[in-house]
Specification:
The chain has 13 helices and 5 strands. It is mainly alpha-helical and 304 residues long. β3 and β4 form a beta hairpin. α4 crosses α5, α5 runs parallel beside α7 and α8 packs across α10. The chain is elongated, with a radius of gyration of 37 Å.
């Protein structure tokens, strides 16, 4: 039996617990008779050792292990429930002629899109500002679903874009919708993803795609980064036979822009790598930043 003498404290192993307390000696009978009768207190620990503590005035007894206080899984130890009401308001966005509903978080869409922020702001007295729904009758449900994917996951993976023959029209139509709804980050992500896809698949948009981007009925603004990227893809890649011999007709505005780009390209530019392969050039030529910042500035703020 291991005994530690400190204020009558004894630590006894379970095996010898029956012999852990001896009768008081004759020298301590007077002291024992003058004090209250004290029973040893046992506390069961996870190690199953018995701790007895003697005191002249206090006797403590606990026979069950101490249980750790539990907290709800949604809150960390010592924290309090969130005081703000963020991402709790559901907005129903009704898309297309078929009125396909999408249930999204109102606060998230207002934060990422000035269009939604203005339409749902009571200060502007729009009908949608006091409603739980908003209609986009001219948008396609498949395009809006693609936009929702990017807003929630920041990815543009799509089964029709993957593979050796990417469906660039999916990305082009998404860019047009993001431009209408003023989702700047999505537009910049699209041109980055399109450039990467063109390199990985060694492909370029089709004649139909050029009509969507440059045609009179298209919705891609003149001078936009998307137009510049499409022209540069044809200017830098070996597309001479494709442009010359394709059975479908190319958009006239696109062909004029391509010729002008080739005429302005200097020998120094031709021996360099394509401009979309460096972040600084990609940002300068194809990205749009309303706050006049650049992608390089944002990377520096992150410490990259």
């Amino acid at each position: 039996m291991a005994t530690i003498a400190h204020e009558h404290l004894q630590i006894v192993s379970p095996r010898n617990s029956r012999r852990s307390f001896r009768k008081p000696s004759s020298t301590s009978k007077n002291h024992a008779s003058s004090s209250a009768s004290i029973r040893p207190a046992s506390i069961t620990s996870p190690a199953m050792s018995v701790i007895t503590h003697h005191s002249n005035s206090v006797t403590q007894q606990q026979t069950t292990p101490l249980k750790e206080k539990t907290f709800p899984c949604s809150y960390a130890r010592g924290s309090t429930p969130p005081a703000r009401s963020l991402f709790k308001t559901i907005l129903s966005v009704i898309v297309g002629d078929e009125k396909h509903p999408f249930l999204v978080h109102r606060e998230l869409f207002c934060a990422i899109s000035p269009f939604f922020a203005a339409a749902l702001n009571p200060a502007y007295n729009f009908r949608e500002s006091t409603s739980t729904s908003l209609a986009l009758p001219t948008a396609r449900p498949c395009d809006f679903e693609y936009l929702v994917q990017w807003i929630y996951t920041r990815t543009l993976t799509h089964e029709e874009v993957a593979g050796p023959h990417p469906a660039y029209f999916r990305l082009i139509r998404l860019w047009i919708l993001a431009d209408e709804l003023q989702v700047e980050g999505c537009k910049n992500a699209i041109v980055d993803f399109m450039a990467k896809t063109a390199d990985e698949s060694n492909s370029v948009p089709t004649p139909d795609d050029t009509r969507t981007v440059f045609g009179e009925g298209g919705s891609v603004r003149e001078g936009s980064g998307l137009r510049g990227l499409v022209v540069d893809l044809f200017a830098w890649k070996k597309t001479d036979h494709l442009v010359e011999g394709h059975q479908d007709s190319w958009d006239e505005t696109f062909l004029r822009s391509l010729v002008a780009r080739l005429k302005r390209t200097t020998w120094t530019e031709k021996i360099r790598q394509p401009p979309w392969r460096t972040l600084s050039e990609r940002c300068r030529l194809y990205h749009e930043h309303n706050d006049q910042s650049t992608c390089g500035d944002s990377e520096k703020k992150k410490g990259v």
